[in-house]
Amino acid sequence: LRKELARLDRLNLIGEMAAGVAHEIRNPMTVVMGYLQMLSGRAEDGLQEKYDIIMEELNRINAIVTDFLSLAKDKLVEKESSNLNEIINSIYPLIMADATKNDIEVKLVLADDMPELLLNEKEIKQLILNLVRNAIEAMKADCRRLGIETHVHDDKVELITSDSGCGIDSQHLNKIFDPFFTTKDNGTGLGLAVCQSIVDRHKGSVEIRSEIGRGTAVIVTLPRS
Ligand code: ADP
Ligand code: MG
């Protein structure tokens, strides 16, 4: 037991240090990106493309650091009485743009009488966008359908995203929520870990239903307050 506690202590310390480092990376990053933006505004011919690549890569680092920070379990987030359907509607144009670009048909079915829930709007948007991104990235075959649904029950609300994509290998099912687990060449493996941590902070749960070659559904359950 003492060994196990020592191990947990060490893990906690590592987690705290990692979060500290991630936090410290953000400030210099902001300065670098600001100057880069300024310089790229007056780039000579032929350099613009290179500035764009640098900016893209910096954005990627930023996204990873941001994701990493939102993994912190005890992260304090403020929740407000909000409407899940309205949050979905507010990012729908973003989702549609991404889907259209990838030749994907979107079906949106929102429940009537959505009750107000205690939500952190920014985190719920992040949750939905992460799930939608995975759905879009899973669809390479001809049939490309993305579904977003909400359902209202007596004690809970469900948010379901579904895709007609490649499905998830049963051997991977117990790993996909682990930070840094990815099957993609340029994946970070942080998307679902962030989703899990957001859902945890909302006292909800996540369930995956997937069939190889047919598609995947992610069911997020949020408690009614
Ligand atoms: P990343 O997208 O960077 O790989 P995620 O944490 O978002 O990281 O997802 C982890 C892994 O889970 C993915 O690499 C993929 O193998 C699997 N996965 C997640 N969502 C889906 C989906 N909708 N369809 C198929 N596989 C998925
Ligand atoms: Mg992802």
UniProtKB/TrEMBL annotation:
The organism's place on the tree of life at top rank: Bacteria
Occurrences of domain Histidine kinase (ranges): 20-225
Protein name stated in the entry: histidine kinase
Organism, scientific name: Dendrosporobacter quercicolus
